[in-house]
Amino acid sequence: MKMTRVLVPVMAPLALAVSGVASAGPSGYAPPPPPPKKQEFIVRVGGSYVSPRADSVTFTDERFDFLDIRSFRGTVDPDDEWGWFINFEWKAMDHFGLELNYTDGGSHRGGSARRYFNFVLPDVTVGSIGEFEPEITTLMMKWYPLDPSCLVQPYAGFGINYTDFGGEKFRGWRRRELRDLGLRSRFSMGYSWGYAAQIGVDFSFGHDSAWLVNAAAIYTRAESDIRFSVFDVDPVAIPQEDRFFEAYSADYEYDPWIFNLGVGYKFSF
């Protein structure tokens, strides 16, 4: 019993010393630290369903008071449309990522301006007057609340968006009807900067799979000036002071909801 009480305090420090030398490896040096974790990248691509806002706007006369029409109300109500998206995400940390997304919003049609067109084109029912093609680019910081080992990864994001409107034109018969009256038309929109927010989820096919399925809902704040002009067909043949010219403009809140469904691929280096 006395021998045990003596050996325990003596052998304990010796055992710790031996275990430390063993863990240091054959050469007696400590092993190098593990390599740093590789940064992850994700590329996603798929289809987008774009649902813009219907907005009632006031068109104001930019040139002069033509027969007492200084301004009028109109409705910009574009149809929902299918487009496509592609995005690239950099995940430098487990729970945070930086995503750059591009959405082609398809070709929207819609809107009415009854007071003006009922005056210029009597007895004609005005439906969709315009057509435009939005292109939406967003840059967002994203947060993933679950552990990276989970196969289902929900996330939320917030950032900025740049929306450009192209392909603007008056619709079909409106151009023909105006031309029959000796008039031409032009429809144009600007661009917009605003904020963007999204919620989404990635579904991985397995712990060792690089492929995933993605679903997301994105809201973008976008407001653009909208302008249309009506003027004579042959302006060169008519003196400047005698030319018929009307130009109206308004501010339109586009503010679309974008619903994405696509596939993604993860890689790291």
Major sheet: order of its strands?
1-4-5-7-8-10-11-14
Number of strands: 14
What's the CATH architecture name of the domain at 40-171 and 191-223 and 249-268? Beta Barrel
Radius of gyration: 32 Å
What is the terminal separation in angstroms?
A: 61 Å
Mean pLDDT: 77
Secondary-structure element sequence? Answer: HEEEEEEHEEHEEEEEE
Given as residue ranges, the uncertain stretches (5+ residues, pLDDT < 50) are: 10-18, 21-25, 114-127
Helix content: 10-25%
Could you please say which CATH topology of the domain at 40-171 and 191-223 and 249-268 applies here?
Porin
Shape: elongated
Major pleated sheet: 8 strands, antiparallel, barrel
Which CATH class of the domain at 40-171 and 191-223 and 249-268 is shown?
Mainly Beta
The percentage of residues in β strands lies in over 45%
Annotation field: number of helices:
3
Q: Structural class of the helix and strand makeup?
A: mainly beta
Would you give an account of this structure?
This is Outer membrane protein. With 269 residues, the chain is mainly beta. It has a domain at 40-171 and 191-223 and 249-268: Porin, CATH 2.40.160.20. Helices cover 14% and strands 55% of the residues. It has three helices and 14 strands. A hairpin with a 6-residue loop joins strand 10 and strand 11. Residues 10-18, 21-25 and 114-127 have low confidence and may be disordered.
